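Loading example: each entry is read as two labelled lines plus one structure line.
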Amino acid sequence: MRLNGAQIIIKLLEQHGIKHVSGIPGGANLPVYDAFVDSNIEHILTRHEQGGGFIAQGMARVSGKVAVCMASSGPGATNLVTAVADAYLDSIPLIAITGQVPSSMIGTDAFQECDTYGLMLPITKHNWLVRSATELLEVIPEAFRIAASGRPGPVSIDVPKDVQLEEIELDALPPCLAQEQMPNANDAELAHFKQLLTEAQRPMLMVGGGVIHSGQAELLRQLAEQQEMPVVASFMGLGVIPAEHLLSLGMLGMHGAQGTNMALEECDLLIAAGVRFDDRATGKVSEFCPQAKIIHIDIDRSELGKIKQPCLGITADVCDTIRRLLLIAPPQQRMPWRERIAHLKQHFGLGSSDGFELFTPQGLIAELGRQCNEETNIITDVGQHQMWTAQLFPFQRPRQWISSGGLGTMGFGLPAAIGAALQQPERMALCISGDGSIMMNIQELDTAAEHDLNVKVVVMNNNHLGMVRQQQKLFYKARFSGINNRRRVDLALIAEGMGVRGIDLSDAPNPQQMLAEALATPGPCLINVPISEQEMVFPMVPAGAANHEMIVE
Amino acid sequence: MTDKNNKAVLELKVNNHPGAMSHICGLFARRAYNLEGILCLPLEDKRYSCIWLLVDEDQQLDQVIRQTEKLVDVLTLKHHVDVNHDVFIELEKAFHL
């Protein structure tokens, strides 16, 4: 058959099981969009390329599978950059395909030319500037393999327009490539693991995003139960163990419960599974887990010893390692430690959300928790609302929690929720956002309306950049600066203007009932919930301080 | 002459295409790791190049090696600890001609 480069791209995406591609066409990727016409891939036109990047991320984050976004050259590509960098820090498998000016014009400062290869280089696992249509036959399958293998991550492919148009003769498309072989723990490492675990009096398990990527989170819960060992989750590890589980201590670190960080101070063994010791988790590293030996298991060898030197470092697939450990480690009873943990949870936990009214962060998250179930995907933006959700929402399963952790990108929530709803239409995508974040990609409400997706956006609206206000209040003597535009935007009206139902709970005679009714009605909806700008996220560890120096209120 | 103390040479076999060098130099720059010298030549089989990097032998080196090994275009990496960096010494002579 005779195909041009653009047709090869689309056919290979089809072959790799891609059902949706999000993005925006432009001069330099017109041939690819021409090839879409003959494809059964559904193209999701977004209103900004960054929205396209985050829609693809939403698809990838709920499914664990590689997702694809597209943009044209120049501004199209630069608009994708934030979403790609975000995927890089959270290890999300994403392929960004960008158009580029024709090869003959590269380097001439042509219209809408920019060095996409150079821009994407430090924020991807690997990236390509494709020089010929034949090269695409190698690059596209490689891109899928690299994005999904080992520690997942984004890749980007920059394709000059002439390469998209170049026709070649081929007998068949190249096959999909198998993922790279995962490294496994060896017997000596497992024996050492077992020995350290058996000797420990006060072990703790710290689970991160790597456990979710590894795919068998229930094994970690089994290990915790068998060893009577409490579990803390990094931000990315929320959902590995159900929030209500007796052994769950929730999230650690900057906004973790006081008792959770106290337990980490006291533990004598920390099993760090699929985590990277982010500074928001550890606080001042030299004072993190001061009494503990550390066992660090990660698929990425460069994470071992990067921040914290482990006593035992294992480069391996984390769930496979735990599965094998479960076969050899004898169950343990650790009554004094369990009692201590129960005490810390009771007296130094986050406290009950009961009795808070709906227009408070605690009351709203608790109400959303009651009105949602395990099937709901919870997506957030970035800021106070995100931390309240991380602290208080009763997550029950891996991949239920979708949020921008490493890069902390405001504007992530709505498009990621759209991606979640496209990938899993049977599940409601509930985006919890703030008035600051929602404005950063609010144009994608139009995309949600176009596809009539079951996306609900709940905006905790304090008319301020709340997390910035909180830090100025706590650390800058309440000298407030740049946190409020002094006008109140009618977000519900904006939604209505884009064909999305918009409601404001402050107008409702029975706000609880109105919220329930809005969530139960299929289709997109924006729900504005006013809260006070005085509310703050506590506890809080000041940046750079040790976790025991947390401000409690 | 370069102070030979606390220096190591990394010898890399990499795919020979435009961009491989950027990936490597970019990694060192963004990880804030000093790169003292770089030499890059294509191997006889033009598909590959050999890159010699003169670097500081310090406690961060192991981390940088691990990051370098993750690069898709880096096929092999040899860490020469106790060598006299012939390659770079010869180069220095050339510089001082």
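The mean pLDDT of chain A is 97.
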